[in-house]
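User: Here's a chain of 254 residues. Predict its fold as tokens.
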Amino acid sequence: MVISKLNTGSSFGNALSYCLQSKKQPEILLSNKCYGSRNELTSQMNQVALLSNRVRKPLWHASLSFPLCDKITEKKLVQIAKKLEESFGLEDNQYVVIKHNDTPETHDHIHILINRVSIKTGKAIATSNSHRRMVKFCRQVEKDFGLKRVLSPKQFLSGKEKLIPRTDQRKVKLKEIIKEGLEKYQNYPEFFAHMASNGYKIEKGRGIAFIDSKKVRIKGSEVGFSIAKIEKRIEEEMAKKLELKLTQKRKLRL
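Assistant: Prediction complete.
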């Protein structure tokens, strides 16, 4: 599973300072048409950016994250970066690929700092549809490298693809756990404890949402359990329990 972020910016120096800070345990895996220290890289990229007097944000900052279940080697990370170069036509653009090693227990991730201005033509890469192209690129990487695959956001799917029935296993699992909890327990403390034991944190306000161990937030209404429905089920179970107690008391009096 590949998770991407893509932003534009105006300062190569600030981006390089962030990506190369020592606490991130940075490692430069690859560079194209630039080299050296942070200051040298900044100077070289700024010089090329001056080839275009129209671009206010010459920096393209892409990051790719790979969760622990998709542990991959540095060799593959370089191969993925080269595929990005090919997919976005970056052969004549400066870029630096930096891996952060401060979170190995959770996920690998790399930052790719790209100079949008071509060193060959002085023209800048257009950013229109860049997010859509990045989503498509990530799905292709998952396929090519045998990584866990995820669904593309609906807004990036074709009309036919949107009609294909899709199942989100994360939501299916959450729905079953909520249903089980409401069948077993008759009050909020017990229900909350049940959800916590299954790895979920609960946000409860005007609505209700559940956050799993991967920090993914899902609204109760998305799985058929709005706060109104949950409250109704709990109230019904409490009423049944109270009625049962009253019935037992009446039997003891007879």
